[in-house]
Amino acid sequence: MTLEGSSPRGALLVGGTTSDAGKSLIVAGLCRLLSRNGIRVAPFKAQNMSNNSVVTVEQTDSGMIGGEIGRAQAMQAFACGLEPSVRFNPVLLKPGSDRRSQVVVRGRVDGEVGAADYHSRRAALASIVDAELASLRADFDVVICEGAGSVAEVNLRADDIANMGLARRAEIPVVIAADIDRGGVLAHLLGTVAALDAHDQRLVSGFLINKFRGDQSLLAPGVEWLDRMTARPTLGVLPFFDGVWLDAEDSLSTPVGATVGPASPGGGARRLGVAAIRLPRVSNTTDVEALACEPGVDVRWVDDPAAVAAADLVVVPGTKATVDDLAWLRGRGIDVALSDRAAHRKPVLAICGGYQMLCRRIDDRVESGAGVVEGLGLFDASVRFDEEKVVRNATGSAWGLPATGYEIHHGRITGAREQPWIHDDLLGDEGGHRDALWGTHWHGLLAGDAVRRTFLHHVAQFCAPDFAVAPDTDFDAVRRGQLDLMADTLQSHADIDALVALIDSGPPDNLPVVSISAR
C-alpha cells in the first residue's frame, strides 16, 4: 500500500467496543501516517474525560490566552505536525471525585457537573462540538475523530455528542476498534453493532482488532464469521507490542505496580529506582514518562509506604483533588514515609498538587470546599486556592539552563521560605528546594533534555553517586519514534487503502442491519 499521490478529503471516526480499546493510539497512528504522506490532517475528540491535560495557546479577540485539552489530543496533534489547540478537544471533563467533574469547554473552565445534570448541558455542547468539527473539516483535508468509551452505550445515546451522535450529525463513517487481549473480541464487535439502531448501524463500516498475540491464522475463521454476520470487513488485526507507552490517555487506568515505559538498558552497573505515587485522582501522569525514557532509570507506580521508603527517588505527581488525595496519603501511612525521606535527605520531587500537599497549610474553598487543612509541612510555604484557574505555558530557566513547562491549577503558593530552583520569565522565582526535596507547579519540566539530565545528576548525588546519567537521551525523538511505530504498524497490518476510501467516499451504501437475534 502507498499513499503517494493520494489526496483524500473527508473524515473518519474511530470508535471502540470499550474504553481503552486503543482508539487514541490508532488515531495517532493514522494521523502520523497521513501526515508523513503530505496530507493535511487534524485530530478531533469531541468530548474527553481525563485528568491528563496539556496547555494550548489560542489567539482570541482579546489576545493570546491559555486553554487546556486532553493529553491524547496533544499527542495526536504532534503526530500531525501541529501545535495543540482547543479545536481538537472542545469538551474536556476532569473528574474530581466519583460523582463530580470539572467541565472545560473550548479550553476554559465552565463549571462542575455530576453525571445526571451533565445530560442537561449536552444539547448546547453538541452545537459547539459540531461547529468545531465543521471548521476543522473546512481547514484540513482529513479529520480523524476519536470516540469516547464504547459506541454502544445505549443508555447515553439520546444525548451523545462524541460517538454515534457525532457521526450521525456529521454523516461520517465509523470504524470500531476492539481489544482482543481482553477476550471475547468477536462477541464484542457483533454485539456492539447489534446494539445500535438501524440509522447508526449504516455508518459502521468496518472493524479493527487490536493487541493480537500469536498465530493470526487461528483468528481467521472468526474474522470470516464476523464478516458473514455483519457484512462488514475487518480492516486490520494489529499486533500486541510493548513499544508504545507514551502519552497515556486515561490516568485512572494506570495500575499500581505497573512499570512506566520499557525496561531500559544503560545507566552502568547502578540503576536508579523511581517510585511514582499512584494517587486516586492523579493527573498528568505523563510527567514521569520523561524519566522512564532515560537508560538505567526504572519508574514504577506505587501506593504503599514500603515502596516509597525503598526508592532512590519518589515523585509525588499532580492531582485533581489535592485535599482528598492528601487524606488518602495519610490513611495509607505514606505521609510518614515522605517525612522520613525528608529527614534522611532522600530525594523527592513533588509536582503541582503533589507540591501543594507538601506545604504546611492548604486553604481550599474552591476544589474541595474543605477550608483550611494542614499539609505535610515538608515545605515552609502555604497554598491558597483561587476560583480563577491558572492555565498557561511557562518559560524560564532551571540551574541556568533554558526550561519550559506548563501550569494547570487553582492553588497559589504564598509565604514561601524555601530556596526557589526555577526562574519563571513572567513571574520570577518558582518552586521550592531544600536538601533533596524539590517542588514545582510546572508540569512538563523534565521533558527538557538538559534540565532532566541535570536533575538526575542532583538526585544521584544524594542516593546513587555511581549512577551514570546518559548524555544524549532525546525525549522528543522518543515520542516521534513511538508515533512512527504506530504508523508503521497500521501500514503493515491494516487495509489503509480501504480506510482512505472510507474517508474519501463515506460509508458504503445499503449496509444491512444486524439483529441481536442473528444466527
UniProtKB/TrEMBL annotation:
<dbReference type="Pfam" id="PF01656">
    <property type="entry name" value="CbiA"/>
</dbReference>
<dbReference type="Pfam" id="PF07685">
    <property type="entry name" value="GATase_3"/>
</dbReference>
<dbReference type="GO" id="GO:0009236">
    <property type="term" value="P:cobalamin biosynthetic process"/>
</dbReference>
<dbReference type="InterPro" id="IPR002586">
    <property type="entry name" value="CobQ/CobB/MinD/ParA_Nub-bd_dom"/>
</dbReference>
<comment type="function">
    <text>Catalyzes amidations at positions B, D, E, and G on adenosylcobyrinic A,C-diamide. NH(2) groups are provided by glutamine, and one molecule of ATP is hydrogenolyzed for each amidation.</text>
</comment>
<dbReference type="GO" id="GO:0003824">
    <property type="term" value="F:catalytic activity"/>
</dbReference>
<feature type="active site">
    <location>
        <position position="443"/>
    </location>
</feature>
<feature type="domain" description="CobQ/CobB/MinD/ParA nucleotide binding">
    <location>
        <begin position="14"/>
        <end position="245"/>
    </location>
</feature>
<keyword id="KW-0315">Glutamine amidotransferase</keyword>
<dbReference type="GO" id="GO:0015420">
    <property type="term" value="F:ABC-type vitamin B12 transporter activity"/>
</dbReference>
<keyword id="KW-0169">Cobalamin biosynthesis</keyword>
<comment type="pathway">
    <text>Cofactor biosynthesis; adenosylcobalamin biosynthesis.</text>
</comment>
<dbReference type="InterPro" id="IPR047045">
    <property type="entry name" value="CobQ_N"/>
</dbReference>
<dbReference type="InterPro" id="IPR011698">
    <property type="entry name" value="GATase_3"/>
</dbReference>
<dbReference type="InterPro" id="IPR033949">
    <property type="entry name" value="CobQ_GATase1"/>
</dbReference>
<dbReference type="InterPro" id="IPR004459">
    <property type="entry name" value="CobQ_synth"/>
</dbReference>
<feature type="active site" description="Nucleophile">
    <location>
        <position position="352"/>
    </location>
</feature>
<comment type="similarity">
    <text>Belongs to the CobB/CobQ family. CobQ subfamily.</text>
</comment>
<dbReference type="InterPro" id="IPR027417">
    <property type="entry name" value="P-loop_NTPase"/>
</dbReference>
<feature type="domain" description="CobB/CobQ-like glutamine amidotransferase">
    <location>
        <begin position="274"/>
        <end position="449"/>
    </location>
</feature>
<dbReference type="InterPro" id="IPR029062">
    <property type="entry name" value="Class_I_gatase-like"/>
</dbReference>
<protein>
    <recommendedName>
        <fullName>Cobyric acid synthase</fullName>
    </recommendedName>
</protein>
